[in-house]
Design goal:
The complex is a heterodimer. By secondary structure, chain A is mainly β. Helices cover 0% and strands 48% of the residues of chain A. Chain A has strands at 4-7, 10-13, 19-25, 31-37, 43-51, 54-57, 64-66, 76-78, 87-94, 106-107, 111-115. In chain A, a hairpin with a 5-residue loop joins strand 4 (31-37) and strand 5. Chain A is globular and about 40 Å long. By secondary structure, chain B is mainly beta. Chain B has no helices and eleven strands. In chain B, strands 2, 4, 5, 9, 10 and 11 form a six-stranded mixed sheet that branches. Chain B has a five-stranded antiparallel sheet with strand order 1-3-8-7-6, with no helix packed on it. Helices cover 0% and strands 55% of the residues of chain B. Chain B has strands spanning 3-5, 9-13, 18-25, 32-37, 44-49, 53-57, 60-65, 70-75, 84-91, 100-102, 106-111. Classes of the chains: A mainly beta, B mainly beta. The interface between A and B is medium-sized, with 26 and 25 residues.
Chain lengths: 116, 112
């Protein structure tokens, strides 16, 4: 299993450009998440999905959009990029939750995005 | 509100023991996770606590007290490769979403 894969690894955008960050998992996980991590900070949840066709906002959704048409893929779309979106973006997935189950999140390698 | 506090930085000596504390105030609770993150890499899972007490995994142990909103990660026999950031995260207890709320992380530097 490849686990969680993300593309691209690095990207430089100009202000106002758009792009899609790709995320794919091959573990048949229902739950998928997008985080951003600013230097020296923890992870902030942008959007999440509990299954194909279902998405919801996290803590910092403004400026982003997601879709979940399949179990495997959870792309993150940036429209009209701004310097405040310069960050490292991590995608994660976890298995079906039961009450109190461990089901840790597995993280992709990240995408380092700079908006100038 | 949701708040998770960890010390920003810690330094310890190779071979020693270090304890990284985490306190949390969250609207719901469905387990606490510790992740390790080396510079420039993704977080990787270390431990999970949902009941009070100590969980041990080799050189790493994690403790939870739900009544105090407190956890710690204990690293024994420190090695240079343990230099990393350690992230405390609480799983949201509202709904079945699996959402995690992360602290800012504690950067641990292990010196020879």
């Amino acid at each position: 299993n490849a686990g969680v894969t993300q593309t691209p690894k690095f990207r430089i955008l100009k202000i106002g450009q758009s792009m899609t960050l790709q995320c794919t998992q091959d573990m048949n996980h229902n739950y998928m998440y997008w985080y951003r991590q600013d230097p020296g900070m923890g992870l902030k949840l942008i959007y999440y999905s509990v299954g194909a066709g279902i998405t919801d906002k996290g803590e910092v959704p403004n400026g982003y959009n997601v879709s979940r048409s399949t179990t495997e893929d959870f792309p993150l779309r940036l429209e009209l990029a701004a310097p405040s979106q310069t960050s490292v973006y991590f995608c994660a997935s976890s298995g079906r939750l039961s009450s109190g189950g461990e089901y840790e999140q597995y993280f992709g390698p990240g995408t380092r995005l700079t908006v100038t | 509100g949701q708040n998770i506090d960890q010390p920003t930085e810690m330094t310890a000596t190779e071979g020693a023991i270090v304890q990284i504390n985490c306190t949390y105030q969250t609207s719901g609770f469905n387990g606490l996770f510790w992740y390790q993150q080396h510079a420039g890499e993704a977080p990787t899972f270390l431990s999970y606590n949902v009941l009070d007490g100590l969980e041990e995994k080799g050189r790493f142990s994690s403790f939870l007290s739900r009544s105090k909103g407190y956890s710690y990660l204990l690293l024994k026999e420190l090695q240079m490769k343990d230099s990393a950031s350690y992230l405390c995260a609480v799983r949201d207890g509202s709904g079945n979403t699996g959402k995690l709320i992360f602290g800012q992380g504690t950067t641990l530097q292990v010196k020879p």
